[in-house]
Design a protein that fits this description.
Chain B: Residues 45-207 form the Thiamine pyrophosphate enzyme TPP-binding domain. The complex is a heterotrimer of chains A (384), B (301) and C (87). Chain A is an alpha/beta fold and 384 residues long. Chain A is 40% helix and 19% strand. Chain A contains twelve helices and 16 strands. In chain A, the strands form three sheets. Chain A has a seven-stranded mixed sheet with strand order 3-2-4-5-7-6-13, with helices on both faces. In chain A, strands 10-12-11-14-15-16 form a six-stranded mixed sheet, with helices on both faces. The longest helix of chain A is centred in the middle third of the chain and has 30 residues, at 215-244. Chain B has helices spanning 3-11, 23-35, 47-52, 72-86, 100-105, 108-116, 167-172, 187-198, 213-216, 223-232, 258-262, 275-294, and strands spanning 39-43, 64-66, 93-99, 122-127, 153-154, 157-158, 178-183, 204-209, 239-242, 245-249. An eight-stranded mixed sheet of chain B has the order 2-1-3-4-8-7-9-10, sandwiched between helices. A two-stranded antiparallel sheet of chain B has the order 5-6. Chain B starts with a helix and ends in a 7-residue tail after the last helix. Chain C has a domain at 30-87: 2-Layer Sandwich (Alpha-Beta Plaits). Chain C is 11% helix and 18% strand. In chain C, the strands form two sheets. Chain C has a two-stranded antiparallel sheet. Chain C has a two-stranded antiparallel ribbon with strand order 3-4. The chains are: A alpha/beta (384), B alpha/beta (301), C alpha+beta (87).
Chain lengths: 384, 301, 87
């Protein structure tokens, strides 16, 4: 049923439909409305779940780790500093192959302290073994959460999923959302039955010491599973489309790229602005398109290659930077074209850090600079 | 071999790689035997975790979960919440455990959160009074004047200059139903306190004094005796708190001078070299005297 | 690919720590034993067995020779003997 709703509360409602038995969170702007929404849902008896108010994000992540290990579907959400405080636990969850879903309401990193949006927080933990999916709209954010539980709980996957949604731009944005029914979600999402759990009837030791004889294989296994995730994400998106009647998620989304000479590549809500600009330019006959990267981890190498290989110029537009190097997505995409016969000129742009507005004008500024010898990590919209 | 031995092996089996005479391995076995098989254990990083779970081997006969150094109490909170959700909390006990560093230093925040939220968990701190797993560095529970690798005795230092943190009182201040201290020198006391704690619903805290032959530098066969001496000199009082109130303490008929406890341990050897050492020992005796008064440790005739 | 490192109960039994002993090992004399169980209770390895008087012994496959059993025995019925000697 369609309703006009704020992004955070929409996600809270979606999580309710996914029925986690344990929810744990620590407040941080701009994640708060999501967990406030869930707290109210639990307080009103609409969801039978243990809502655990913890004393830090480190403990929030640890509580859901423990709950998942004990065989109960769990959920947490955070932002920025909170995600960084969780970092140690995030690696641990992935290494232990525990199914979990976390929402990251993307926000800049201190110092200076800044509560506004960019992608530096989630991008910093991209090497943790979590699957990272970025939402463009509130609707997509909602749909991705349902898909996330399907992916993480697949017995061939057992890797946690982080749904990244732009702080404020999506969390606090009112949008008309097609909200599925409980019956539809129940049909799509089987009850949680993990491969292994803490069980007194069948005791196992979890979280062992892995010496040089066995550690490397655990990392290889995650790397191999990530290849399976690349196959599973489109399948789950396809199943979702069949069940709910709309296409959402997938590895990438191609927007007017088929005949495009220039393609802009981006993640998250930024893609919407790029699409607007592309529409404007298309009316003037400019052959330009957008490639939306939904899955940053695993990195959909083949899908990105296919989408970009025929373009002349590519501009990677990122809300993050690996300081002292390049935007991480730029680096990934440059690397995949290394040594390939078909290879566009790839330029890198950094935009919208700490909530700096991304305007149509700034996007046009980017498009104007894309060239054969264009920039690798050009900051757009600086006030120097 | 008797039936009983086989049961023991199921809960905490032989073949772990603790040092000979390890007080912590003894403590863990005593706790688990008292708790029984219907228990889920979470463990902080540290000696106990390392010496009992080197893959593919494990000594644990109960479901056991280790995640990180500072989050044993938090993952236990998650396990307990999951059991509540599953309706199993009345039949399965949850024990969360860690060493002195994992409890009193890096894990204190998570432990405080666990107690404040009222989780039905027994937290056990195995206190061997330093970071032994990393090589005997000072922790917040290292006693005054202890020689450790990061609080060494030297020309101008007589070891750790700071007092031992009082974890039992910190926990009791959360007004939890039960907070107590015990020692592997008194194995039956350990087990009766574990059983008592597990009979109470809500958060419980048990502080176990566990000698470390390697870090305390005493012969491996003196583990039990040294642990007893800590209690008998009043340097480690065995006490019980209920809802924040001191309800009992182990009374001492004869209280031994602290030298008897300090002397056999290499970590205090620097105190027995000169006149300055004597003055330092007097300060340690003062700590014991304060304990005697504060906890009313003297047995009445 | 799932590579989840979990271990099963009792799996540490394959690690025979008795080989660590270099100097001494306990000998249970079984003469003056009163069956107080203290030796069994204080063993850090949990490798001592027995439940009635003069039935106690230890599993030498695991005993590390720490000697706490001999110290705690109130009847001096456990002695530490050189590693090479017969128990």
């Amino acid at each position: 049923m369609k309703e006009f709703i704020e992004g955070s509360y929409a996600i809270a409602k979606i999580i309710k439909l996914c029925k986690p038995g344990v929810i744990s969170a620590y407040p941080i702007t701009p994640q708060t409305h999501i967990v406030e929404g869930l707290a109210q849902i639990v307080a009103d008896g609409e969801l039978k779940s243990e809502f655990i108010n913890v004393e830090s994000e480190h403990s929030a992540a640890s509580v859901v780790l423990g709950a998942s290990a004990a065989g109960v579907r769990a959920y947490t959400a955070t932002s920025s500093q909170g995600l960084l405080l969780m970092t140690e636990v995030l690696f641990n969850i992935a290494g232990m192959r525990l199914p979990l879903v976390l929402t990251c309401a993307n926000r800049a990193i201190s110092a200076p302290i800044n509560i506004w949006n960019d992608h530096q927080d989630s991008v910093t933990v991209r090497d943790s073994g979590w699957i990272q999916l970025y939402a463009e709209t509130v609707q997509e954010a909602c749909d991705l959460h349902i898909q996330a539980y399907k992916i993480t709980e697949d017995h061939n996957i057992q890797l946690p999923v982080m749904i990244c949604i732009d702080g404020y731009l999506l969390t606090h944005c009112g949008e008309v959302v097609d909200m599925p029914s409980q019956g539809e979600v129940d049909k799509f999402l089987s009850p949680f039955s993990p491969l292994y759990k803490l069980d007194v009837a069948n005791p196992i030791t979890m979280g062992v010491l892995g010496d040089p004889d066995c550690y490397m294989e655990t990392r290889y296994a995650i790397q191999e599973t990530m290849k399976d995730v690349l196959k599973l994400i489109p399948k789950v998106a396809g199943d979702f489309e069949k069940a709910f009647g709309r296409l959402s998620g997938g590895l990438v989304e191609k927007y007017k790229t088929d005949d495009a000479e220039k393609i802009l590549v981006a993640k998250g809500s930024l893609v919407g602005t790029l699409k607007d600009v592309v529409d404007d330019l298309r009316t003037k006959g400019v052959k330009i398109g957008v490639l939306k990267v939904v899955s940053h981890r695993p990195f959909p190498e083949d899908a990105i290659f296919d989408a970009l290989k025929k373009a002349k110029y590519v501009g990677i537009v990122e809300k993050s930077i690996s300081l002292g190097a390049y935007g991480p997505l730029y680096t990934d995409i440059k690397a995949l074209f290394q040594g390939k016969k078909e290879s566009p000129c790839i330029n890198g742009f950094v935009i919208g850090l700490g909530g700096r507005d991304v305007t149509k004008e700034s996007v046009k500024e980017i498009i104007d600079q894309i060239s054969e010898f264009g920039p690798t990590n050009k900051f757009i919209g600086l006030k120097l | 071999m008797t039936e009983k031995l086989i049961t023991e092996k199921k809960l905490f089996a032989c073949g772990h790689t603790a040092c000979a005479g390890c007080g912590q391995s003894l403590g863990a076995r005593l706790v688990l035997e008292a708790a029984g098989p219907n228990t889920i254990v979470t463990n902080a990083t540290g000696c106990l975790e390392v010496f009992s779970t080197r893959y593919p081997e494990s000594s644990w006969g109960v479901p056991w979960l280790h995640s990180l150094f500072e989050n044993s109490a938090a993952i236990a909170s998650g396990v307990e919440s999951a059991l509540k959700h599953l309706g199993k909390i009345d039949t399965i006990r949850v024990i969360s455990q860690g060493g002195d560093g994992g409890t009193a230093d890096i894990g204190l925040q998570a432990l405080s959160g666990m107690m404040e939220r009222g989780h039905d968990i027994l937290y056990v701190c195995y206190d061997n009074e330093a970071y032994m797993n990393t090589g005997i560095q000072r922790s917040g529970l290292t006693p005054f004047d202890t020689n450790t690798t990061t609080s060494p005795a030297g020309k101008i230092s007589s070891g750790n200059p700071l007092p031992k943190k009082n974890m039992v009182e910190i926990c009791a201040a959360h007004r939890i139903p039960y907070a107590a201290s015990s020692s592997v020198g008194f194995p039956l006391d350990v087990q009766s306190k574990v059983k008592k704690a597990l009979s109470i619903r809500g958060p419980k805290y048990l502080h176990l004094h566990v000698p470390c032959p390697l870090g305390w530098r005493h012969p491996s066969n003196l583990t039990i005796n040294i642990a007893k001496l800590a209690v008998e000199t009043a340097l480690f009082p065995m006490v019980e708190y209920e809802y924040g109130k001191l309800v009992s303490s182990r009374k001492l008929v004869t209280i031994k001078p602290v030298e008897e406890y300090l002397k056999p341990q290499g970590r205090f050897a620097h105190l027995f070299k000169d006149e300055k050492g004597k003055q330092e020992i007097a300060k340690i005796q003062q700590i014991a005297n304060q304990n005697i008064e504060y906890y009313n440790l003297k047995a009445t005739k | 690919m799932i590579k989840h490192l979990t271990s099963k109960p009792g799996s540490s039994l394959s690690n025979k720590t008795g080989s660590w002993r270099t100097e001494v090992k306990p000998k249970f004399l079984r003469k003056n034993c009163i069956g107080c169980k203290m030796c069994r209770l204080v063993c850090p390895e949990g490798c001592i067995f027995g439940d009635k008087k003069n039935t106690y012994g230890c599993d030498y496959q695991y005993c590390k020779g720490c000697g706490n059993c001999a110290v705690i025995c109130p009847k001096k019925d456990i002695i530490m003997i050189p590693e090479g000697e017969k128990e």
